[in-house]
Amino acid sequence: MMPIELLEKPQTLQTRSNAPAHDAHGRRINYLRISLTDRCNFRCFYCMPEWGMQFAPKPELLTNAELIRLVRIMAQTGFEKIRLTGGEPTLRRDLVGLVEAIANTPGISEVSMTTNALLLAPIAQQLADAGLKRVNISIDSLNPESFRKITRGGDLTRVWAGIEAAEQAGLTPLKLNCVVVRGVNDHEVLDLARLTIDKPWQMRFIEVMPLVGVAEVADNGVVPSNQLIAQIEAEFGLDFLGWYGADPARTYQIPGAQGKLGFISSISDPFCATCNRMRLTADGKLHLCLLRDNELDLRAALRGSGSDEELEALIRHAVWIKPWGHGLPDGVKPTVRGMSELGG
Ligand SMILES: Nc1nc2c(ncn2[C@@H]2O[C@H](COP(=O)(O)OP(=O)(O)OP(=O)(O)O)[C@@H](O)[C@H]2O)c(=O)[nH]1
Ligand SMILES: C[S@@+](CC[C@H](N)C(=O)[O-])C[C@H]1O[C@@H](n2cnc3c(N)ncnc32)[C@H](O)[C@@H]1O
Ligand code: SF4
Ligand code: SF4
Q1: N or C: which end of the chain has fewer CB within 10 A?
Q2: Protein residue with its CA nearest to atom 19 in ligand 1
Q3: Span 223-239, mean pLDDT?
Q4: Rounded Cα–Cα distance for residues 77 and 144 (Å)
């Protein structure tokens, strides 16, 4: 499918202005994931090729002023929850100032961030003071050597320092993300789950998805969540807690544990029916569904002197035409963007 580029105000708007934006399937879309940069200080093998991606040249990236304006307009269309991601969001210059501006935008109720935490420790408190509510941190192995291999160079000690600093700064409840890949880190699932016995964290196991640049990792690497659930239950016992609204994770708990377990089963048990989210790429494209190619060029409208009203109309139209869901595992795979451009 070709990406959609709608640079002009659509002639027929299907949604009521002033009402919070809903798509054509009745889903309320109120969660924007912003990729602050497509660059990263890791090269996780399930996310990016070793040589990286074709990174966007700097002039193509949204400036802070453009981003803040867009967030204000998105908030007017009903977006309430913002997640900063990347690439690696901590590489963005003036991250603290950006967090503060977004957190102070009328209508925005929560700003959170997904990070690899390598650079988090020294800035965690400043981010919390600026209005960041919580962080989700990626950790795919507890073994420093395997961690280094999976991330192609990552230092697990610094990531633990980031986790500790996030807790101290109150960026909680803390969620830890592990992309499980068969034959690489699936043997560590019990050890990762065990962390939740003494810590109030949500440890989440994610089915690997076939994004551009790494599609072959998912071809043979997906471990269906039900296999992991059975394995963990056999070792510790497991209580099902629920599946709350638009949360992509099904949650469980080891009996008596302080923390929880989450399973994000995009492939074996998709959650598109309750999807509430869209993505803004660092180069200013509104990407309508993580696993589809459709996107709309907001940067062109921003830089082409589009008024706030025109931008709002474009955003409402994009929400209206948001695809129902993905077609995996056997349907059309994404062909345009890598995970590091979309932010997960
Ligand atoms: N298929 C699909 N997977 C998603 C979507 N959103 C998140 N994920 C997956 O879930 C992983 C974890 O997402 P996070 O960045 O931690 O964000 P989150 O789960 O929305 O965060 P919370 O606000 O804490 O619920 C991502 O890396 C993706 O693999 C989505 O809309 N579709
Ligand atoms: C793209 S990263 C960006 C934020 C940050 N660099 C990090 O790793 O947390 C966001 C999330 O996407 C997940 N992710 C990356 N590639 C994936 C894939 N192929 N399938 C499923 N999740 C993936 C990562 O594990 C991470 O939790
Ligand atoms: S998953 Fe995050 S840390 Fe790993 S390469 Fe992708 S963007 Fe970087
Ligand atoms: S695959 Fe698309 S529709 Fe499904 S949950 Fe993710 S973003 Fe939403």
Answers
A1: N
A2: 248
A3: 98
A4: 44
| Domain that residue 95 falls in | 4-172+274-342
**Model ipTM value:** 0.99
Pairwise CA distance, residues 207 & 270, whole Å: 10
The CA distance from 74 to 278, in Å, is: 11
Tell me if 275 CB under 6 Å of ligand 4.
Answer: yes
In a domain, 256, yes or no: no
In a domain, 278, yes or no: yes
pLDDT of residue 7: 41
Cα 204 to averaged position of ligand 1 atoms, centre (Å): 10
Q: Which two tokens stand for residue 336?
A: 């345009």
CATH number assigned to the domain comprising residue 76? 3.20.20.70
Query: Backbone phi, then psi, for 109, in 5-degree steps?
Result: -100, -25
Question: Domain tally for the chain?
Answer: 1
CB-defined site of ligand 3, < 6 Å: 40, 42-44, 47-48, 86-88, 116, 138, 339-340
